Amino acid sequence: MIEHGTLIAAVLVGLLGGVHCAGMCGGIVTALSLGTVRAPGVDAGPSPGVSWPLLLSYNLGRLLSYTAAGAIAGSAGWFATRMMDVNQAQLVLQVVAGLFMVALGLYLAGWWQALARLERAGGVVWRRLEPLGRRFLPVRRPGQALAVGLVWGWLPCGLVYSVLIWSVASGGPLQGAALMAAFGLGTLPNLLLMGVMAASLGRFLGRRPVRVSAGVLVAGFGLFMVVQAVFTVGL
């Protein structure tokens, strides 16, 4: 089973990654919270205020997609460990995951944009999935919001990709699913608040000191993962 400390760390990464979530998902979350997500040319009428059923349903769908992706990534890592010594494979995967976390921290801080290229590569798959999400517009019911969340969970995102690499090193499909679920829960506070107070929260998360602080903390965690793996090999 995956350690509780690892799950807590995944929650914290999701929370700190809110500076990125605001840009990637802030628009649709704000629209959902106001019940204004619609197809082009469709008038949603006057805004009824915060629509919690739509907002919560969307986020549930997003978390389910994250969990499924984590199970797939964990399975890939499990098969990789069968190809070589289990301990050695897990250490290698942990180093790779740690390096991705460092890259994520630098990305969040705005110091290195390598993960942006990974997001663009993921856009190839997203171009095939995004039209599927449009079939559920306009969003008027929780079921539609859930479906949109299920699709939006696969949006190309360097933050999600980095945690998926971490899931590969988690040890198996259940561990990978748990890790991504914990990460998804960590993203919830920012996105729920974004739905309620989009303008002020967006400005706060967009401030450079906030982004740099979050990036440094995430990069520091990645370095810890790498050092921990190297120290284990040294023993």
UniProtKB/TrEMBL annotation:
<feature type="transmembrane region" description="Helical">
    <location>
        <begin position="212"/>
        <end position="233"/>
    </location>
</feature>
<keyword id="KW-0472">Membrane</keyword>
<feature type="transmembrane region" description="Helical">
    <location>
        <begin position="178"/>
        <end position="200"/>
    </location>
</feature>
<protein>
    <recommendedName>
        <fullName>Urease accessory protein UreH-like transmembrane domain-containing protein</fullName>
    </recommendedName>
</protein>
<keyword id="KW-0812">Transmembrane</keyword>
<feature type="transmembrane region" description="Helical">
    <location>
        <begin position="92"/>
        <end position="112"/>
    </location>
</feature>
<feature type="transmembrane region" description="Helical">
    <location>
        <begin position="145"/>
        <end position="166"/>
    </location>
</feature>
<keyword id="KW-1133">Transmembrane helix</keyword>
<feature type="domain" description="Urease accessory protein UreH-like transmembrane">
    <location>
        <begin position="9"/>
        <end position="222"/>
    </location>
</feature>
<dbReference type="Pfam" id="PF13386">
    <property type="entry name" value="DsbD_2"/>
</dbReference>
<dbReference type="InterPro" id="IPR039447">
    <property type="entry name" value="UreH-like_TM_dom"/>
</dbReference>
